[in-house]
Amino acid sequence: MPKTITITGAAGQIGYQLAFRIASGQLLGDKTKVNLKLLEINPALEALKGVAMELEDCAFKSLGEVTITDDASIAFGGSDFAFLVGAKPRGPGMERSDLLIENAQIFSIQGKAINHNANKNIKVLVVGNPANTNALIASANAPDINPRSFSAMMRLDHNRAIAQLAKKTSFHSSLIKKVAIWGNHSTTQYPDINNALINSTKALDLLGQDWVRNNFSPAVQKRGAEIIQARGLSSAASAASAAIDHMNDWEMGSDEGDWVSMAIPSDGSYGISEGIIFSYPVTCKDGDYSIVQELNLDGFSQESIKASELELLQEREAIKHLL
């Protein structure tokens, strides 16, 4: 039975990257047929036609039908997986609160469309920023869908953290385990390697706390801005790759003996307020996730995590009238 996968903002840079990788089988394996539903705003439909033509020309064995539309009800019809990529970017002089409200309107509409048209067991990944609060808005507008079906992407930050450790230690990224990103997809996020292992050795034993706090954490937190400065555009290929990693692990299961970072509805674990979408270290199995419990958090970690929680609570306050 083919799986239906929705991508919003599908003519944009990340959506464009996602479409081809998913169509080729990178998300669910090349033995699983996928139907793509690509959503864009009306002015971008002509560009989206070009994306559909290129997908056709690839003759992917795992690709079934491709639907292009500017109608959210069509885009989410029967959807099993959704990547909510399209979002309004922050413009010159725009406050973060303004950005939140502008995007709230987009994600409210999409949440309602998911509620009324999608598979009730859909898995939704919000990529468009501010991702955590956009996921909260979408979920709030889909009351018939389990809130656990909505997540926001922290996997790019997680992958960036692993890459920084690999670069510093010269060990391959595959030998780095149990990295965690806590909190919001913003500069308040807390990249945590207190439990990380590098080639089975404790990361802190190899690196030291000073380097972690003064070099590693800022590098992860500000990597997106660094890429924009170098490339003139925001991360696209790495973001699409991370989105596929996130959804693949969620559906197929994460590696045994390791964990990944997902922004999910807080259940109060580690004293984090419920009612926000917060990134935790999780393991995935049988199409579901579980928060890694009973980790010891030192004072610095607790303080850093609380700072990110506070930002998310402030974001929720800014759009509470739309929840």
**Portion in helices:** 40-55%
Structural class: alpha/beta
Give the strand tally.
14
Give the H and E element order: EHEHEHEHEHEHEEEEEHHHHEEEH
Tell me about the largest β-sheet: 6 strands, parallel
Mean pLDDT: 95
Relative strand content: 15-25%
Overview of this structure, please?
- With 323 residues, the chain is α/β, with parallel strands linked by helices.
- The protein has eleven helices and 14 strands.
- It has helices at residues 13-23, 45-58, 72-75, 96-117, 131-140, 155-169, 203-207, 209-221, 223-231, 237-252, 299-318; strands spanning 3-8, 34-39, 63-69, 81-84, 123-126, 150-152, 176-177, 180-182, 190-192, 197-198, 201-202, 260-265, 277-285, 288-291.
- Strands 3-2-1-4-5-6 form a six-stranded parallel beta sheet. A three-stranded antiparallel beta sheet has the order 7-10-11. The protein has a three-stranded antiparallel beta sheet with strand order 12-13-14.
- α4 (96-117) crosses α5 (131-140) and α6 (155-169) packs across α8.
- The longest helix has 22 residues, at 96-117.
- It is globular.
- The mean pLDDT is 95.
